[in-house]
Structure formats: C-alpha cells, structure tokens
Amino acid sequence: MTDAMPAGDRKPLAPPVEDTGMIGWARKNLFSSWGNGITTIVLIVAVVWVLNGFLEWALFTANFTASTGSECRGGGACWALIREKFRYIFFGSFPYEQHWRPLFAVIAMLAMLVLSADRRMWNWRLLVIWGIGSFVTFLLMFGQIHIPLSLILFVALVCGGAGLALRSALATPSERMAYYALIGIGAVGLVLRILGVLPKWSIGIAPLSYVETSLWGGLPVTLILATYGLAFAFPYGVLLALGRRSNLPLIKGLCVGFIELIRGVPLISLLIMASVMLPLFLPSGTTIDKFLRAQVAVILFAGAYIAEVIRGGLQSLPKGQFEAADAMGLNYPQKTLLIILPQALRVVIPPLINTFIGFFKDTSLVLIIGIFDFLNTANQALVDPNWAGFPGEVYLFAAFVYFIFCYSMSRYSKYLEVELNKGTRR
Amino acid sequence: MAATARDLSKAESVIQLKGVNKWYGQFHVLSDINLDVKEGEKIVICGPSGSGKSTLIRCINRLEEHQRGDIVVHGVTLSNDVKNIEAIRREVGMVFQSFNLFPHLTILDNLTLAPIWVKKMPKKEAEEIAMSLLTRVRIPEQALKYPGQLSGGQQQRVAIARALCMRPKIMLFDEPTSALDPEMVKEVLDVMIELAREGMTMLCVTHEMGFARAVADRVIFMDRGEIVEQNEPEEFFANPKNERTKLFLGQILHNH
After folding, report:
1. Where is the ABC transmembrane type-1 domain (chain A) (predicted)?
2. Burial of A412 (0-12, 13-18, 19+ CB in 10 A)
3. Mean of per-residue pLDDT scores for chain B
4. Inter-residue contact B119 to B138 (CB < 8 Å)
C-alpha cells in the first residue's frame, strides 16, 4: 500500500475532535454509556458528600487553639491536642529541655537515608555516610559514647581484610601495604587485648548528658528500629536466601529451618521471647539492653521474610546466567556478587520495598514489650485526663506521619525500578 | 581450503576423553565416549536432538559432571577439585545457544568482566583487548549499549568476543546459530569461520553443514549417547557408513 501511494499524497489527518480535549476524554471515559454515566454521577456525589463531611470536621469547625480538652468539646476536630502534645508524640519521655537532640538525630537519620537512596553513592561512600550518620544519631540519642579498644582493633582488622579481598586486583603496592598494616595492627592488638596485655580502655566521647534507652521514645525510636532493623536484615536475608539454595545440605538445612521457624511465629511472640525469656537464659549479671533485644528480634524476623523475597528473584534468573558465569571461570563469590545478585535484586524491588514498608509499620508492635515507638507515644498522649476523648485526631495524625514515610518508600521503589532498568530494556 | 590438507598427526592432543559415561537418573546420556582432540583441530558434532552432543561438550568444562571415565584438558584431569575446574575454565571458552550475555552490564563490561576478575587484568588493558575483539566481530560501535538493545546475531557475536577475551586455547560452541533468525546465521558463522582459520581449537555442536564442510577437520555423528561415526567432512557427507548416519543426513540435508 505504501508503494502504491506516493508519500507526498498522504496528508496526516488530525484525530477526530470528539476524542481529544477535556470533553472528549470525559465522554470517552466517564459517560460512554447510560450505565457508565449514572455510575460516574453517583460516585461524584458520594465523594463530594464524604469529603464535605470530613472537611467540615477537620477544618471548618475544628479547634486549633483550645488550652484544655473541655474547651474543645462540641465542635469539630480538636487539633489543639496535637499542638499541645506533639513534642511528646515525637520524642516521648526524652528529657524535655533536651528535645533538640532527638530532633537532630531524626534529621541525621533522614539525611543518611536520603543520601544512600542516590545510586551514585552505592560504593565506599555508603560506608562513610552510614558511619557518620550512625555515629551522629547515637551520639545525640545517648549523649555519650564509649568506644572500647577491642572494637577499634576489630574494625581495623575487618577494614584491612575487606580492602585486601575486594581490591586485590586493583590496589597499588603501597595501598596493599596499608591493608596488611591494618590487619597486622588489628590482629596483634586483639590477641594482646584478649591475653590481657593491653588494658581495658575505651575512647569516651561525652559532650552531653547520658540518656538511657528506656527514656527514648517517639519518632527516633521508630526510625532507629526500622532503619537498622532493615539495614541488617537485608544482607542477612541475602545470605539466608543464598544459603537456602546452597548445595551443602547442612547450610541449606540450617537456613530452611531458620526461615520456616521465624516465619511460623508471630513477631509479637518473638519480641516477648526476646524481652522476657532471653534474660532467663543469660548468665546472671549480664544484661542486654531491652531496646537492643527488640532490635535483634526485628532483624531476625525481617531477615526471614526478606530471604524469601530474594529467593524468588534468584529463582527467576535463567539457568544460562549461572552457566555463563561458571564457564568464564568466575568463582562463587564473584558469580554471586557480580552476576546473580544484581539481576535478582532488580527483579524483586517491588516485593522487597513492600516488605520494607510492612516492617516499618510492624515496628509499632514493640509497644507490647513497653518500648515507646511513635505509635505508642501517640497512644500515651491520650492518657492525659485533661485531653481525654480525642483518639481520632491523634491516630489520624500518627497515620499521616506513617503515610509520609511509607509513601516515600513506595515512590522510591518506582524510581529505583526505572533507574536500574535504564538501557537494559529496548 | 578444506582443513584436511593440514597435518594434525604431529599436533599435541589438548582434550582427551576416555571411556566417559554419564546418566541422568536411569537415562544413559553418554555411553563410553572416547575422543582425542588435537591442538588446532576443528570438530563439528551433529546428531538428532537428545543424542547427548550438548552434554558431551558441556562435560569438557564441567557444566555437567560425568560419572565414569576420564576427561583431560590441557594436561589437567577434571575432578571435583574446584581449583582444577577453574583452571580448565580459564583455558576453555564457551558460546551458548541462547547467548547468555549478562543483561545488566554493557557490552564492554560483559567482555571485560572475566579478564578483570578472573585474570586480575588491569581495567584499561582489558578494555583495549575487548575493543579489539569487538572490532574483530565487527560491532565496536555497540560497546556501550546493553545486550537487550542488540539483535540476536549481534548478541551472539558479542558472546563469541566475550569468550575470546579470556584468550582461551579451546572454544566450545553449543548450537550457536540455532536460536537465530535465518538472516543472522551468516554473520555469526562468518566470525566462526574466521576464528577457525586463525587456528583456534574448536568443538562445535551444530547442524550447519556448510560450516562443517568449510572448516571442520572431522565431523562426529552422535546418536543415543554414542559416537556412531566420525570422518573427514567430505568423506562423511559423501559416504556415510552407518545406517543411522545416512538417515540423519537424509533428513537434515533435505531440509536445507
């Protein structure tokens, strides 16, 4: 047909008028038939009616200025309650005059998260960002940090080892010498420390007053539990998923057993076990911070779920990818880190972020063992007899804050999918 | 130009299979395979589907494990020792039917990955080698694209270049043109013929009989896990001895 007609004779036709513009769109999508038209009108009326009622309550008759609960009564929403209590809801029982500390801790954590969301930071910079971010966060929250000598030596050993392992192909001789020096100092120091030659010594950084974890509350608690919970659960979940596909029966059995065990019990029971039963098993005299125990429980639980999500990604890869990597002579770690995981993780971004969002909200279950996370402090704000009787406002406010975080994650998931698939699709 | 003119009798043998047997469950997929490949020899393996020809070459770089017999590649006997396997895989390049390029890496990164990580080659040097190989397979302009943006024929040529990047002594081809649209078969075969003329030792599972005639020193016919017949290409096609060979050749030559 194109051959029969010279190109010059074909004039591009404008699309029919009834298909374009607002009216065209509405006619096509909303009023294409009698049934559709009626449904559209009914739904519009319903939405307007509900929205009208909500705005009436939340804005037009709402009270923003009352100083006690009784002044609020009779009208619409009592936002004065939030105004009165927001510092408690956000920061819990943290000493009142020190509230700037959890505020900046939250800002530091958010900055850390936003920076690490950028793909260009996914290299050594990520370690620096998390190192500094975590240090600032916990220094602000605790007020004082004591870094024991053994930890410093251990970090030196790990850094040297990691540098040598990861950069063996690229390092210059002097760089390599630095790694060997780190390993040497770390290993010798640790041995001497264990033998008791080196004293029990720690670097104390104590610019602020000490605030113990039982006083922490509100948003920083939720953010710490979720951020570090997922930050540790993710690599742990990857290892579990790889272990579950291992050819070695012992490793495979352990991973399957762990995943099934953890998935089979509610998070609440795990938290209660961590808070009530674990201390019974520990030798008397040793105590592990309750907050830390809850954190570990969250990590274990999230790890099992993340592992199964990632396993789905691993199974979606064609066998040929494994074979091609094998045939090139890549060893197992190289194959896994360079070929398998980058592809498997891309596939599972939507379910993975789904799991992350679920766990962000599930951290609120720590209220069971008396940790004051954001939802729990919101709940506690209702206890004040002066302000009794306004649960709707408080929970709506809490829901709004949770929504901001969860929706950000959801948008980030979308961005990541597009970003990582750039160029790989036709 | 037929390779028969070359004298291979004095060449060193680089692959030896002695009494190799393999089973998938009860199914005897390789039965008593004996094969000796000389340096620089080009062997074409053909046979009906399910005859074990792919399994045979996949045993040579241990993508499949054989159960009985010995496979010796460049003096190294294949065993469960990971070091042995990795040593052999460094010497043996492989090209797959379904290309198996890494879709998340650019063409250039696909090529430089193994030299950098397995051979610990500096990145710059690896990239130079990669570019020269891409030029050789006639697609240097695609270096920064991703595999998904290339046609099947281009992808298979990249796969060949990727295998060559490791400077292998032996190349295995597992039905390299079977997944290609007909108009792309030639561009891949041309690259393989060129490679053959440069003296690479090649084992190629293929039904491209034109390719076999052009470069093969020996054509092997496999059926039901056995090597039924092997001969120089001219003799093989002109005077097949075994009934099964005749039947098979009748079928595939008829179709072409």
Report:
1. 219-413
2. middle
3. 90
4. no
How many beta-carbon pairs under 8 angstroms link A with B? 76
A-interface mutation test, from B104, B120, B172, most A Cβ less than 10 A away: B104
Could you tell me which of B76, B75, B70, B60 has the C-alpha nearest to residue B34? B70
Spatial distance between the Cα atoms of A238 and A302, rounded to a whole number of angstroms:
11
Top pLDDT among A32 and B40 is at: B40
In this structure, are residues B100 and A320 in contact, taking their beta carbons and an 8 Å threshold?
yes
Q: Which two tokens stand for residue A337?
A: 């880190």
Closest CA to B55 of B31, B77, B38: B31
Preferred mutation among A247, A248, A328, A421 to probe B, highest tally of B CBs within 10 A: A328
Q: In one letter, which amino acid is A57? A: W
Decide if pLDDT at B2 tops 70.
no
What phi and psi, each to the nearest 5 degrees, are found at residue B61? -110, 20
The ipTM, to two decimals, is 0.91
- Taking only residues 321 to 360 of chain A, the set having a beta carbon closer than 8 angstroms to any beta carbon of chain B reads 321, 323-331, 334, 338-339, 342-343, 346
The two tokens of residue A35 are 């049934």
In chain A, which residues have their Cβ closer than 8 Å to the Cβ of B93? 327
- The total domain count for chain A is 1
Q: CB–CB of A330 and B82 under 8 A?
A: no
DSSP A78: B
> Does the residue A43 lie in any domain?
yes
Is A220 part of any domain?
no
Mean pLDDT for A391-411 is 92
Q: Is A371 within the bounds of a domain?
A: no
Contacts of A24 (CB under 8 A, 6+ apart): A17, A18
- On whether the CB atoms of residues A387 and A394 are closer than 8 A, the answer is no
Does A316 contact B at CB distance below 8 Å? no
Pairing mode of beta strands B170-174, B76-77: unpaired
Q: How far apart are CA A195 and CA A192, in angstroms?
A: 5
Selected residue with higher pLDDT from A241 and A383: A241
Instruction: Look at residues B89, B114, B119 and name the one whose alpha carbon lies nearest to residue A169.
Output: B119
Q: Does A423 touch chain B (CB under 8 A)?
A: yes
Find, among B118, B16, B100, B24, the residue nearest to B60 by Cα: B16
| In A56-167, alpha helices (H) | 69-72, 79-91, 100-117, 124-142, 149-166
Judge: A338–B92 Cβ closer than 8 Å, yes or no. no
Domain that holds residue A53: 16-60
Single out the residue of B213, B177, B191, B212 nearest to residue B46, CA to CA: B212
Task: Measure the CA–CA gap between A25 and A35, rounded to whole angstroms.
Answer: 17
> Residue for token digits 């795990």?
A270
B27-42 confidence digits (pLDDT tens): 999 999 999 999 999 9
Q: Please, what is the Cα angle at A245 between A244 and A251, to 5 degrees?
A: 50
Q: Give yes or no for residue A193 having a pLDDT over 90.
A: no
Q: Where are the beta strands (DSSP E) in A281-387?
A: 372-373
Residues 6+ apart with CB under 8 A from A104: A136, A140
Distance of residue A301 Cα from the nearest chain B Cα, in angstroms: 31
Q: Which residue of A has its CA nearest to B166?
A: A328
